[in-house]
Structure formats: C-alpha cells, structure tokens
Amino acid sequence: MDSSAGLLTKLWSFISFLPFFFLLFILGITKATLIGPIAFAIMLVGNSSVIIGLWTAHVVWTYYCVARTKRFGLAFKVVVLICLPLPLLLCPVLGIVGSILGGIGYGFFAPLFATFEAVGENFKDKIYHCCIDGSWSTIKTSCTVVEDVTDFCFHSYFSYMDELRENLPPQEKPFDIRLSLLPCCLLVTLVGVPLDVVLITSIAIWKSPYMLFRGWKRLLEDLIGRKGPFLETECVPFAGLAIILWPLAVIGAVLAATIFSIFLGLYSGVVVHQEDSTQMGFAYIVSVVSLFDEYVNDLLFLREGSCLPRSY
What we know:
Blueprint: H1 2-68, H2 74-83, H3 85-117, H4 126-132, H5 136-164, H6 182-225, H7 236-275, H8 278-299
C-alpha cells in the first residue's frame, strides 16, 4: 500500500511538472529566437574579419619563423615547410566554421539555459529573471569571444612564433626525423586515417542507440525518483531540458568520435617513426580501434572488453 502511494505521488509530481516545464521552454525558445541571431552575427562577422584580415600576416610570419628556427633539424624543417600550406589554408576555414557553429550554439542555448537557471533559489524575482536573464549577457559574452579571438590572432600567435625562433639551450638537440622512415610513415598514415575513421565512426554509430536510450532511461529515473542531479526542486526543470537535448549530445558524441579518429590515424605515422617499425604502426591502427570499442563499452556499461582484435 505504501509503495503504491509513493508511486502515485511520484507520478503526480511528474505530471504536474510538465506544464511548468513547457512554459519555461517556450519562453526560453522565444528569447533564443530574438537574441540568437544577434549573438551569431557578432561572432561570425567579428571573428571572420579578424581571421581573414590577419591571415596573410600569419602565413608570412609562420614561414619566416619555421625557416629561421634552430629547434628543428634540416630534414624536419623541409618537411614542415612543404606541408605548411595545408594547415594554413584549413585554419581560416575551421575558424569561420567554428564561429558559425559557436554563434548558433551559444546564441540559442545561452538564453534557453538562463531561463531555467532563473527559477533557482538564488533569485528572488523569478518571473523578471526568467524574462530578462540570458539576453544582454549573451550579447556581451559574444563580444568577449570576439575580443579573445582578436587577442589571440594579434598577440598570442605571434608570441608563440617568436618563441619558436629562440635559441636552443646547450643541452637540447634540435628535433629531426629520419628521411629513410618517411615513406613508411606516409604509407601507414595513408592506411590508418581512412581505416580508423571508418571503423571508429561505425562503432560510434552502432552504439549510439544504446547511449540514447540508456541516457533517457537514467534521466527519467532521476526525474521521477528525484535522484542524482534532480534531487533539489530547483533542478527539476533542467531534467526535461536534458531529456529533450539528449539526442543532440549523442549526435555530438558521434561527430567527436569521427573527428578524433582522424588524429588517431595520423598518430600511426608517429608510432612508426618512434618505434622504427612499420609493423608497430599497423598494430597501432588495429589496437586503437579495439581500445575505443572497449572504452565505449565501459562508458555505456556494456560487456567488458572488446570483441575486436588487439595487436601488441
């Protein structure tokens, strides 16, 4: 009898929470619709102007510092100078794309989250803060982001390049590579990048439904039972928001796995050079996929280990 009454109490608490949540959600979406485009425009126009405006200076100064540095050996310096056009061309593209995604994400979610935060116990006039919070602060923070990007492009980047030109301490040797291993490094990298990207992305996509439904299950259990992060009444509105936004977190995890797999594949060439062994490079390509699968299994509380082979 007591258990039935407790269940009904929790169920009623959950049902009565829904209108309150949807009211806050609609208000947050409205604020995000009004403030988001302004924050997006500030970040996109400001960051893009700085990145494009200083790109030529960055290219010239980067080549000059790499050519003059004594921290690199001759062979490694030549390889870096040959390979520099690719990252120098990608950097402004990635910076602009990052500004677009950051402007959209921050401009939308900051007012939305601020609306839910305003119902906390630290706020007295909750209705006022629900309507106002996240508006001007989002615009100010967007301007701060542009200032930080400007500071990095104008000052920090050139300081890093200046440090590269500093003389080596007497006990240090310049970093260099063995040209005899370069073809093997390139071969393993050309095999490792596409293979790791395909396999790791496939694992992430295959196990994304587990992450989605296990996350929803845990959030609903915490919401109905008032456990975990939703123990306090003020935190309950975030439960509904977390449930709605959880699919975006899953998509973000899959995209992050895909991006991260590129760098894992590139590192296979470093393994070949460090270990002086092409076989170790190919073994790394296989092992890193197995390790990723094992890590995902542990994260999602699936079976221990991995069914994929692991070479040592």
